[in-house]
Write a structure and sequence with these properties.
Blueprint lengths: L62 H4 L9 H17 L8 H10 L9 E2 L4 E3 L18 E2 L3 E6 L5 E5 L3 E5 L7 E2 L9 E6 L5 E5 L14 E4 L23 E7 L2 E6 L2 E6 L8 E4 L23 E7 L2 E9 L9 E5 L5 E3 L16 E5 L6 E6 L1 H6 L5 E7 L8 E5 L1 H5 L21 E5 L2 E8 L3 E4 L7 E4 L28 E9 L2 E8 L2 E6 L14 E2 L14 E4 L6 E6 L5 E4 L5 E6 L6 E4 L2 E8 L5 E4 L18 E3 L18 E4 L2 E8 L2 E5 L12 E5 L5 E8 L2 E7 L9 E7 L6 E2 L13 E6 L7 E5 L17 E4 L7 E2 L9 E6 L5 E5 L3 E4 L7 E2 L9 E6 L5 E5 L4 E4 L10
Parallel strand pairs: 2-34
Antiparallel strand pairs: 1-57, 2-3, 4-5, 5-6, 6-7, 8-9, 9-10, 11-12, 12-13, 13-14, 15-16, 16-17, 17-18, 19-20, 20-21, 21-22, 23-24, 24-25, 25-26, 27-28, 28-29, 29-30, 31-32, 32-33, 33-34, 35-36, 36-37, 37-38, 39-40, 40-41, 41-42, 43-44, 44-45, 45-46, 47-48, 48-49, 49-50, 51-52, 52-53, 53-54, ...
Amino acid sequence: MMPQRHRRRFITCTVVAAAFGLLGTQSFAASGDTRPRPWNARHQADIGKQHTKAVQAGKGMSAFAASESGDDGSDEAENSAEGTAQYTEARTAPGVVAPGAYGAAWAQLQSMRHTAGDWDHVTKKAYDSDDPRYRDINSNSSGGSGKVTGRITGIAADDQGYVYAGGANGGVFRSKTGGGHWEPIADKLPSLSTGTLALDGSKRLWYATGESNTGATSFVGTGVYVLSDPQHGQFQPGGRVGGAELESTVIHALRFAGTKVWAATSRGVWSHSTTTLSGPWKMEFAPNPDYLPGGSKADDESAPYKNIANDIAVDPKDPSKVLLAVGWRGGDTYNGLYSQQADGSWKPAGGLGDLPTGSDDVGNVTFGAAADGSRLYAIDQSPAQTDSNPDSGLKGVYVSKSGSPFGPWTQIADYTKLRNSGSALQGAGYMPGIQSWYNQFLQVDPNNPDHVYLGLEEVFETKNGGTSWITPGPYWNFPFPCWSIDPAKQTGDCSPTTHSDQHAVAVGSYGGKTYAYVGNDGGIYRRPLNGAVDSGGHAKDWQSLNDGTLDVLQYYSVGVGKDLDHGGVSVTGGLQDNGQSILRGHDKVMGSDFGGDGGDTITDAANGCNIANEYVYLDMWVTQNCGVNNGSWVDDPTKATEYEVAPPDKDLGGSGARFIAPISSDAKDTNTWVAGGRHVWVQTKGFAIRSGTEWKNAYDLGDGHVATAVASSGGTVYVGWCGPCNNQGFARGIAVGNADGTGWHQLNLPVDGTIPNRYISGFEIDPANAQHVYVAVNGFSRKFTEGPGAGIGHVFESRDGGASWTDISGNLPDVPANTVKLLSNGGLALGTDLATFYRPAGAAQWQVLGKNLPTTAVLQLRVGPDGDLYAATHGRGIWSFDPWRLKGRTN
């Protein structure tokens, strides 16, 4: 009997729109049986059977607001899109963020004083997703992706063994050994969000910031930077190309032609000289210029969708002949392929052969050119097919055998052909290309124009120009006869594969061998360019390059507890697309005890093996042995030690809870837990809970309202909520009551009151007085948020249970705040999208807490039983800080 696994999901966060995501939902079917047991024998791909129709995002309407709930199965593509929108809502609602917001905050950050003390990098260790210790019912261990890290969205490699990898929100890392032993080289920049990396003909490294996914944990960037000596140097703010023209954009592609570089961005197509790096970028084409900043329709809710460019193809024989792939992946009338006319204008191209040119069928497009100019390949995601076909949005893969972007083009693959090439995605509702709006890359062998690597959810390969294909990098090994859960065999008799969801690719050489490098939601992998495969076309020679020095893990949460078996502490946390990591005392490698997306977590400070993990939409699981299991539960269900204990709101999907919903234990009673969805749920059995029926409904937040933050101390509970949560009618509030269900009431928070009309992201309750509470508020203040009642400030204090509030933001930069924590010395720590700040007890001004914490989003702060402060960053792993260091001087 083969288990059903939690399919990995992604959440990207481009802060340029309230909903850069497809519409639709999925929700896990209620099993009705809470005893530990294997999931039914349905194939993993069947998880996606309830694929609801995806349509264009409703111009400011979030997936949460527009979704229809399903009641059977689960679809990664639709679910991840909803998570995408929700992550962005926290930073944009009730309006649209003006360009320059992050840049202004970063500039102010540079002038602030730092406290004494350095942060320690906790997760700078390899993370083995197939760790044989953790083969319990809710783990994806044995799937075959091995050592993983966070999403890699840019790769460049040379012929001297230098490889450059860009993390989604982690910056650029360099390896001098063909991969591995990585060092960061972009940490001085204001943005660590990677769009793409490219080496030009002079071997300079170009770094386009702003993650190249029209989704939402991919932050916008601050432009394009060049490093003239990438083998030895580091990126500097002064190395930016041009001016501020590309700030607050997403950059999908850089393409070089002669002495010009082209950039496909979320605000059209731009170009710049590659010989003179000063001077502004030139706007080449924007299909709807009225919607650009400064235009007459710039404040329209649909503006972020109206000028999206995906790629550029240049004729190798005539650089003046250029084809632009432009369009929103959800569909719009401007979608299409454009060519330049004699008068300099751009017009829709047609008559290219098999390659679609109509707006219905041109969505996310990627080009890949042969080094000798003899071939040009293309991937096309069709908005119309995404809307109508529950199995795949991939229209096709195409080749121009003339090498010209104007063809004629011939189709060489569709999703059914790829499915039949050894793919692991065989089931209805989840076939190759189902996420082609998110997963795409193309790489042509520099020495063989008919040899191509294609990235979708999986890695595909052809050596005959597309006549036939194999799948050297399948999604995972679970469906194949060679798979076994036996820890002694890692993944049975199957060879290791890559992590799923492909984003970046490059070819480079090291030690006399040439390799293909691929980047995906699990990091970076390599194999020989002409590698070996088994009889099923699956590669036998993938090597994970995620050795722990490349820590770009994207955490939502962190939990810390004493390690009773090994001493010290056990550190765990929920991750985007990489389950839940666990690092026990004296471990040299982290393991993964829960699979899928890991959300919020509850960890017993007295025993780090007592862990509750949230999957998505409050689908909670609990273990009391760290999830240690040898897989014996497959044959004997009673041997499972992970239990599904989800509150009833889980069954409502997006209408019942946020994608990453808040959960917490009471600060004074480990056995009292609070979970926030449409309702406030409370259970009092702690880690001994075994069924979702053991939760009690303490309070109904109201129709259309869902919790965004929860906290409890001594039975007093604070819950922040939103609903609608997007910029159309956005509303927020705070409910206060008791864990036993009594005394509940809504605080009076008028739109023009002290607490801004923005997303409530975190609470901290004074352990000495539950009426003394702090709240962190996300989003930007009124200056940058074009929304009614956005207000000002990011952290507030109440001493009367929320009846009145005082803004204590002081000198904080105007940047989204995510989490607030009261330290034992009376000081206050605040985690934001750019840094962690500290306000000493009795002081009014804030300082930057410590040194060397990377400039990335801190989503959760927790104090461990060792007294250290732990920070879960969404792009650079988990870090810790010893508050005793605060006794030193600031500088």
